[in-house]
Amino acid sequence: MVNNRLTAKIAKLEKLNARLERMHHALRASERQFRLLFEQNPQPMLVYEQATLQIVAANYVLAESYGYTKQELLSMRIVDLVPAEDVELLTAFFLTAAPTGPWIGGSDGFADRTRRHQHKDGTVIDVEVAGDSLTVAGVSCRVWAVTDITERNRAEAERMALAEQLAVELMGQNERLRAIDELKDQFVSVVSHELRTPLTAIRGYLEIVLGGEPGPVTAEQQRCLEIVDASCKQLLRVVSDLLLIGKSEAGQLALEIAEVDLSALLAECIAAAKPSADAKLIDLRLAGERAVGPIAGDYGRLSQAVANIISNAIKFTEVGHVDVRLHAELEWAVVEIADTGVGVPAGEVDHLFMPFFRASTATREAIPGVGLGLSIAKEIIDAHGGRISLKTEEGSGTSIRVALPVAVAG
Fold it and tell me: Is 386 strand, coil or helix?
């Protein structure tokens, strides 16, 4: 009976020994695999004891790149790989606040300061370190995989320096553009006022001469003086347009708001533009009108905007017609002015409402103007809380749509 129990215990011990032997073989195999991966890893790697910071293992890649032999590295502490000025700070950190478990980073809590390593020849590099905890022969250690990020940091520093330089240059350019813009505004204002005064005087004296007060004029003189008067009127309109653009850009465009009947306004604008259309054999017509409630606006400014659009349509049309339509869409009163003119290239559409912009079709067809009509119309429509848009196709005409909020002045 005793022999049976002893035999059973011996069998259990043999099984346990066999199991321990298998575990021992597996552990040795795992250790060999780790060493193989560690040594053959193309990235610099090392292992150090957490308590003493002593380096206990380093692969050949790290030894070769840092300029040490493996024996030299095994006689060093981890802080011997950093510049002298960093040793005290790093020693305190690794002994008291080093992270545990897997981690990756280049600052390790040093107020976002990039860690630096120093080669044997004194070369200092910036590094990023990925690490993890492990136990070697019962000793707590850490394994490091080191990446040289010197070039990356240098490139980033150069990029930041370039960005800062570009920002400074951009600020300087913006200041210069602002100064040029202010000079332009001053120039336009001064020139406009300086032109308006003599032009007003010229027109006054023309009226006197044409009225016959100084004496009779011949038919030829009458024709010449009327041409001079028309030219003065045209120049005064340009001066007024320049002043309006200046006021609008300065936020000083004043509006005299009252109740406006758009039907009456359109009829007046069409009647005023009819002689110009007739002279080119263009059919200018109110092609469609539906009942639209009154709007709150500045009659004079809105007339100017509509007149500019109609005038533009007539100038850009050689054959065909200019149609004016009026209708309501929900809370909007909509005016549409469409022509059968030369149109505008698609690439220029976004610039048509900019001051002084002249479409290439206008230049090619020698159509007169300074490029202020549509920009002024837009400024006036915007000041009324309205919307203006444009559809055009080169060779097929242009359609401009103006939407104004329907509201009665209080």
Answer: coil
Q: What is the pTM of this model?
A: 0.52
3-class SS shares of the chain: helix, strand, coil, % to 5: 55, 20, 25
Task: Give the integer Cα–Cα distance in Å for 368 and 406.
Answer: 35
Do 219 and 249 form a contact (C-beta atoms < 8 A)?
Answer: no
268 shares its domain with 392 = yes
**Residue pair 237/368 in contact by the 8 Å Cβ criterion:** no
Residue with tokens 């066999």: 18
Query: Which helix (H) or strand (E) is 128 found in, with range?
Result: strand 124-136
**Which residue, 148, 177, 197, sits at the end of a domain?**
148
pLDDT interval class at 23 (50, 70, 90): low
Contacts of 365 (CB under 8 A, 6+ apart): 316, 342
CATH classification of the domain holding 388: 3.30.565.10
Could you give the CA distance from residue 305 to residue 376 in angstroms, rounded to a whole number? Answer: 7
Q: Where does 330-371 show beta strands of DSSP type E?
A: 332-339
Helix (H, G, I), strand (E, B) or coil at 377: helix
d(CA 246, CA 256): 18
Model confidence pLDDT, tens digit, residues 271-325: 988 988 999 999 998 887 777 878 899 898 898 899 999 998 998 888 889 999 9
- Identify whether residues 245 and 264 lie together within a single domain: no
Do residues 149 and 120 make contact, with C-beta atoms less than 8 angstroms apart? no
Q: How many domains does the chain have?
A: 3
* Percentage of the chain exceeding pLDDT 90: 23
Paired tokens of 330: 């929900």
